[in-house]
Structure formats: structure tokens, C-alpha cells
Amino acid sequence: MEVLERLINVAMLVATIRTTAPILLVALGGSFTTKAGIFNIGLEGQMLVGAFFAVIGSIFTGSAWLGVLCGVTAAVTFALIFVVLVVSFRANEVVVGLALNILAGGMTISLMKAIFGTRGSIVGHGIVGLKPVHIPGASDLGVFGQLVSGYTPLVYVAFAMVPILIVFYQRTRLGLHIRVVGEKPEAAEAQGLSITRIRYIASLLCGVLAGLAGAHLSLGYITMFTENMSSGRGFMAVAILIFSNGDPLKVLAGCLLFGFSDALALRLQTFGFPSYLVLTVPYLVALAALFALAYRSRPRIVRETVDSMKRLMRIEGPPDAGAGRRNES
Amino acid sequence: MSETLRPVIGQAIAIFIALALGTVVIMVVGESPILVFATLLEGAFGSTERIAGTLLQTTPILVCGIAACISFRGGLFNIGVEGQLFMGGFAAVIVGIYLPLPAGLHMLVGILVAMLAGMAWIAIPAFFRARYNANEVVSTILSNYVAVLLTSYFTIFLFKRPGGWSETAPILPSAYLPELFSFSRLNWGLIIGLALAVAVQLYFRHTSRGYSVSIMGQNLKFAEYGGVDIKRHIFLVLLASGAVGGLAGGIEALGVHHRFMEGFAPGFGFDGVIAALLANGNPIGTIGAALFFGALRSGSLLLEVDTNASREIITVIQALIILSVSAQILMRRRGDSTAAERRWKF
């Protein structure tokens, strides 16, 4: 019992929220591409270039936020290359995603060597990190105050994105279009939507959030860049996206699970468990979740398609334009 | 005529574009492209020893590439070759240290156990892919991380050589994979790899099960209507692929390092997957692609000595090649690309 108390306390919850933020950002980014029907294994690389260029931007401009902007720009560039090859050149999305991940790894290390003459990591050099946000009056709220105040800004952005994305997918035209393109491309075409255009938009939006995730890694709690510092978080995000089907609330639930296992792993190390074993925990949790929930993903897609089609019909389409198509399949 | 030449020309153009982009990248990094390419060539083929060094690097890439080819043929992505290599290498080393057997037999048992370990490592992802359609790309990638961490743990906490740093004791000489020449650690692994490439190619061409797998890779529905037991085949293809990944680890352990250590074989699994992609899943073509990447790797060692560029510049070039080839591949079979794409969706 005492062990449990030492394991699960306010500090642990705070740690969970902190470790959840980067994977939540990148997974929510991936939710755009997932909803648009693109399997985006390239999240890892987008996050990595985001982290690297955030540090570069921070050093050369002296501003953390301009650094974040640089990171986002780099990640969006990768997202653009991805979508050009996958959508316009119809290349295989797994192949392109993997190649971009490899490119990100090699590029960041090469540039690190070229700019700083070092291998391994960039520390110091005047990196400006993001300052923690202290919510006024939070210190009077005791435990609750500790839970909500004092994080770096991108943590708040990550959690705020969840309701924003729910509204985006449910209530906005673009959100609906993205879902229709992913679930029933034929219907989208029948509605006169440009699948290409929607997929480009979805991928670029994904790049923005993946870049923020990367920037949070390198300018959030630690202000440094290390080789391959995304360390598989992009792949875990893809695992979450597979079993959540990109639904923001389910993505949040999945990410909290990983944030918790990450935080638990860190804490177990302080109990003297060997770090090599403890570090496998988040990957094992990802694998277990992927396997356990694998069989559930398919029927849901079909059901949601019918729902969203009905909604689309009601909002704008001529009543029978897509209906015939639906019956066909 | 033009139909047979087109893919070859397409691939050549893609590699040319990639090298042009690579040149730009090298200039961005602040090096002379001519110097970099010359150094790479010099480092890869400059002397007999260096050629042997290139072939030494080629071997694991080739074997890993064949592992990837087997899965690609069945329309599956085994990206976990790296993890299977680590598990296979570790298992072979354990056999090499603790299971004294007559020379020759010891080596064979080591190789066999390496293959079994690779197979065991992919068995769970393979089962869930076959039975419940759990995406194998993600599950095999994630198991790479676990394999690397787990073997490091075993090495450092359970099997560490007394006085050594994060490495096991050396294996017994009876388990050594024999070397081909006295001046290099190049060993029989290369011959095994070449023979395996030919064998796998013949298997897919000339046996009925090989044909079933190829059909499954090209058109899942058609194979299903044709009476192919899809679930069983998916499972077996992934197991075979994992076994070959384990073999690559066994060759590295028994032929090159003669022990296991942290960072045992960095990136060979991924290079193999890329080589197989470049060869479009053809084992014979993978020989050429593996030689190309082996030369890049071998040349990059000199690159780091003679210039300020880091050796990772070659992974940039590799990635650029795959990106430009990926665009080309589908330009020449636009017709069935959507069907092929759907298969790889979750």
C-alpha cells in the first residue's frame, strides 16, 4: 500500500500530463491524415525535424517562439513532401513515410555535425526554452493548482486541441470533408470534392501539430536536441491512431495511457529497476493495445461512414447524389 | 522492347535525381560533392582490403534485405528485421558461449537457433496480423525498440564479461563462421546470403506455395477466390521473413563480432529493408542494392576520417533514392496502384 502511495501521487499525475503532451500533439496531428484516409507512418520523422529546427531557430533568433515556428515549418515541409509523393505521385504511403523518417534521422545528425561540429546532442549554445506558464491564483488552490499550473505552453496547446478537434470534425465543413474523403472517397468525388486538395490540407495540418510536438520535446522541459530524440513516439502515435481511428477523445485516452506508462517508467527507475527494462514498458503497452484492440477497428469505420453520409446529405448535397453510390457498396 | 526497358530507365532516372539532390545536401552541409563522392568511392573500393570491407558490410544488408523481400512478396511489411537481427545475434552468442559442441556442428546449431529466435520474435506480430489484421508495420517497428533494449539488458545485467563494458564473453572458436580470406573478417555469411537470394527467387518462381504467396502479394482477393488460405500464408510468410532476419544476426555474431555487445549491428535491418524496396522486392535485385548500400557504408567510414561530413550523409542519400524511386514505381503501374494501396491500409 505504501509502495502504491509512493507510486501514484500528485507528482505522478503531473508527470503523466507532461509526458502525455508530446505524444498527444503528434497523435492529434496524425488524426487529420487518419481521418483523410492516409496511413501516415512518417509522423516520427516530422516530429524529429520539428525538434531539431526548433532548437536551431531558438539559437539563431534568440526567441523560443520563433524556434517553435522554425520547427513547425520544417515539419510542414516534410508533410508536404509526403503528401506530394503519396497523393500526386501515388507512391506507397508506407515506403514514403519510412524513407522520410530515415531522411529526418540522417539529415538532423549531418546538420548537427556541420553546424556545431558535434555528434550526439546539442546542449547550451544559447538555446532559449519555452517558459512555464503560471496561472495566476493557482497556488491558492492547493493540489488542484499543482495539477493545472506550471506547465510549458505547448502542454496547454496539446490538451486544448482535443475539444477543438472534436468540434472541427463534428461541426465544420472542412472537418466533415476530411472525414468523407477518408471514409468514402467515391462519395466525396460524387459530391464534387477534390480528394487531392482535402488530403493536402489534412497532411499539412498534421505537419503543424507534429512540428509543435517536436518543438515541445526540444524546447519544453529539456532544452536540448539529441540524436533520434523522438525515440519512437511517432510510431506509438500511429499505434494509437490505428485503434482510435483518429477520434480525438479516444486519441486522448490512448495518449494518457502512454503518458502514464512513460511517467511510471521514469518513476520505476528511481526505485532501482534497471532502466533498460523499464524503458521497454511504453513500447510493450503500445504493442499490447494494438493487438488487443485490432479486431475492433473495422466495423466501426463502416458504421460511421453511413452516419457521416447522412449528415452530409442533410447539410448540402442533393438528396440522391451520393445515395446510389452508398447502396452499391 | 520499350516495355521492358521502361522500368530500368525509370529507376536510373530516379537514382540520378536522388544523387543530384544528394549533391545539393552535401553542399548545404558545407562540403565539396566531388570530394565526398570520391572519398566514398575510395573508401569502398580503393584497395583489396577495402573491397573486402565493403563486402563485409554488404552481407548483413543482403540477408536482411532478403528477409524484407520475403514479406514484400506476400504483400506484407516486415520493418522489424532490425529487432529479429538483434534477437538472432544474441541467441547465437548464447549458444556459442554455453553449449560446447564439436566444431562445425556448433556453428550450425548457433545459426539454427538464431533463425528460431528471429522467428520467435516476429511470431506474436505475425499471429495478430494473420488472425486479427493488426497492422504489422507498426507492431514490427515497435518490437525493434523492445528487442534492442532487451538484448542490452541481458548483455549488461546477466551475461556481461567480467571486467568488460556492456559486452558478453567471446564465443567458443568452435562456433565461428569460417572466414573467407586471411586479411579480412569477411566470412561465409556472404556465400550464405548469395545462395539464399537465389534460393528464394527460385522458390517464388518455381514452387506452388511460392506462387500462392506471390499471388497473395499482388492481389489478395484473387488469391482468396483461388483457394489460398490467406491467414495461414500471412503467418508463415512473416515467420519465414523473421527467421531470415534472425539468420542475419547469427551471421554477424558468429562470423564478425564473436560476441554480443550494445549497439550490435546498428541499422543493418533498416538498410536491408531499404535495399529490398529499391530492388522492388526481388531477391536477385537485392544483391545489387545491398552491394550499393554496403559500398556507401564502407565508404562513409573513410568519409568521416577524411572530411568533416558525418557518415549519416549516406543515410540521407539512401532516403532520397527511395523517395525518388517510390514516385517512379507507381508511375509505371498506375492502373493497379489503388488496389495495392488499399491492402496496406489498416
Defining key terms:
heterodimer; A: 329 residues; mainly alpha; ABC transporter involved in vitamin B12 uptake, BtuC; two-stranded antiparallel sheet; 16 helices; 2 strands; globular; disordered C terminus; B: 346 residues
Outline the structure in words:
- The complex is a heterodimer of chains A (329) and B (346).
- By secondary structure, chain A is mainly α.
- Chain A has one domain: ABC transporter involved in vitamin B12 uptake, BtuC, CATH 1.10.3470.
- In chain A, 74% of the residues lie in helices and 2% in strands.
- Chain A has helices at 2-7, 10-35, 43-61, 64-88, 93-116, 143-148, 153-171, 173-183, 185-190, 195-219, 233-244, 248-270, 275-278, 280-292, 297-315, 323-328, and strands at 121-123, 224-226.
- In chain A, strands 1-2 form a two-stranded antiparallel sheet.
- Chain B has one domain: Orthogonal Bundle (ABC transporter involved in vitamin B12 uptake, BtuC).
- Chain B contains 14 helices and no strands.
- The longest helix of chain B has 28 residues, at 105-132.
- The model of chain B is unreliable at 330-346 (pLDDT under 50).
- Classes of the chains: A mainly alpha (329), B mainly alpha (346).
- The interface between A and B is large, with 51 and 58 residues.
Secondary structure layout plus pairing:
The complex is a heterodimer of chains A (329) and B (346).
Chain A: H1 2-7, H2 10-35, H3 43-61, H4 64-88, H5 93-116, E1 121-123, H6 143-148, H7 153-171, H8 173-183, H9 185-190, H10 195-219, E2 224-226, H11 233-244, H12 248-270, H13 275-278, H14 280-292, H15 297-315, H16 323-328
Antiparallel strand pairs in A: 1-2
Chain B: H1 2-28, H2 33-45, H3 48-73, H4 81-98, H5 105-132, H6 136-158, H7 189-206, H8 208-218, H9 220-225, H10 230-257, H11 268-278, H12 283-306, H13 313-332, H14 337-343
Helix pairs in contact in B: 1-13, 2-3, 2-12, 3-7, 3-10, 3-11, 3-12, 4-5, 4-6, 4-10, 4-11, 5-6, 5-10, 7-8, 7-12, 11-12
